[in-house]
Amino acid sequence: MTLSKPFDSLWLDTNLATLTEERGYGAIEDGALAVDKGRIIWVGAAGALPPEAMANAKTIHRLGGAWITPGLVDCHTHLVYAGNRAREFEMRLGGASYEEIARAGGGIVSTVRAVREADEDTLFQQSLPRLAALLACGVTTVEIKSGYGLDVENEIKMLKVIRRLGQALPVDVRATFLGAHALPPEFKNRPDDYIALVVEKMVPAIAARKLASAVDVFCETIAFSPEQTERVFRAAAAHGLAVKLHAEQLSDSKGAVLAARCNALSVDHLECLDPADVPLLKGCTAVLLPGAFYFLHETRKPPVRALRDAGVPIAVSTDHNPGTSPCLSLPTIMNMSCVLFELTPAEALAGATKHAARALGLESEIGTLSPGKAADLAIWNIASPAELACQFGGNPLRTVVKEGCICNL
Ligand code: DI6
Ligand code: FE
């Protein structure tokens, strides 16, 4: 694209982490970035800017040496819910396990009770500050799952709230239907009947209302089997919806291999994935969720080296949810992915940008600083991009730019 005609904005006195190379940051020190109509139109070294660029820029932003990265992408969250599970945290610290609490009717099902009791506005009001917190740490695209309604009416209520959140803040919100998250109490001992409801009623209703672009399942001994997962995936495919999977979080159910066979966009968690199965994941993105690993005190780590060696793209995400990962900072999760899972800081940044975009099927739109992609930028007060994953607990974000517009945070 050309800078020879007037364009909206030019960003100077900055360093760019473009993420456009296969490895590393794709760094351009003393870079320049031009934006027009919400899209990036030029990226490069300031010294290589064509001479007419300065005159044609309607606005010039000088950043005093700050770094620009692609806006962060949080590709796996359960951000919409009511109430909290701090009591359960206390119980776990007292010795109860997540599985024990879930089997005793706590866990996910306790949040289901709270969500069913909350009306749509209450659910929206409780969820909005969480989305604002993600945005304040640099997130410009987020995936949010349903899965705490577990009946037609309440799943639709959640998905409507998810849609409203995207209209309320300058964050692109992608909705995923997770009806097969847990067995609702009214279907006790009848999991196949519940899956029939998901397949025959929920998926068609949600597809008809265009309330979700993907379908997810919690494939786990305390949730749904690979066979039940496959039934849900077949319904999703029949309705033109993408699929993704919570796989191998607590046990090795071989869900990831099934998901890859069903052309899933991503397989998520993977702590218990057998490294021997990694070659079968070709085409999928592996989404690592170190917040849940940390918060549940897990010890078995995902096979990062095997994933890396096989060339499976690795994304990282908050998995924000009230029970296993109540974390609202994707940079903190980047830090955890390095400290707990031995990613490099460059892999962590790629995991929170370009590979997370791929986990949502959005890799041609966002995730790198490339001409033609959306001008979704995070601007950081850091001296080198490794600092993003090195620090935690603070917030080096200076500002966020969404489709070319500076956001008021
Ligand atoms: N795995 C998780 O870590 C979350 N959901 C899932 O399938 C937990 C959700 C919760 O405990 O509320
Ligand atoms: Fe999750």
Which class do the helix and strand fractions yield? alpha/beta
- Total number of helical segments? 15
Within CATH, the superfamily of the largest domain carries the name: Metal-dependent hydrolases
Bound molecules: 3-[(4S)-2,5-dioxoimidazolidin-4-yl]propanoic acid, fe (iii) ion
Describe the sheet with the most strands.
8 strands, mixed
Q: How many runs of DSSP E, i.e. beta strands?
A: 16
CATH-assigned fold name of the largest domain: TIM Barrel
> What's the structural domain tally?
2
Poorly predicted regions are: none
CATH architecture of the largest domain: Alpha-Beta Barrel
Helical content band = 25-40%
**CATH class division of the largest domain:** Alpha Beta
Which terms would index this structure?
alpha/beta, binds fe (iii) ion, 2 domains, eight-stranded mixed sheet, TIM Barrel, binds 3-[(4S)-2,5-dioxoimidazolidin-4-yl]propanoic acid, eight-stranded parallel sheet, 409 residues, 23% strand, Urease, subunit C, domain 1
Write a concise synopsis of the structure shown.
This protein has 409 residues and is an alpha/beta fold.
Molecular structure report:
This protein has 15 helices and 16 strands. The chain is α/β, with parallel strands linked by helices and 409 residues long. The strands form two sheets. Strands 1, 2, 3, 4, 5, 14, 15 and 16 form an eight-stranded mixed β-sheet that branches. The chain has an eight-stranded parallel β-sheet with strand order 6-7-8-9-10-11-12-13. Helix 8 (226-238) links the parallel strand 9 and strand 10 (242-247). The chain folds into two domains: 7-70 and 368-406, Urease, subunit C, domain 1 (Roll), CATH 2.30.40.10; 72-359, Metal-dependent hydrolases (TIM Barrel), CATH 3.20.20.140. The longest helix is centred in the middle third of the chain and has 18 residues, at 191-208. Bound molecules: 3-[(4S)-2,5-dioxoimidazolidin-4-yl]propanoic acid and fe (iii) ion. 3-[(4S)-2,5-dioxoimidazolidin-4-yl]propanoic acid binds next to helix 4.
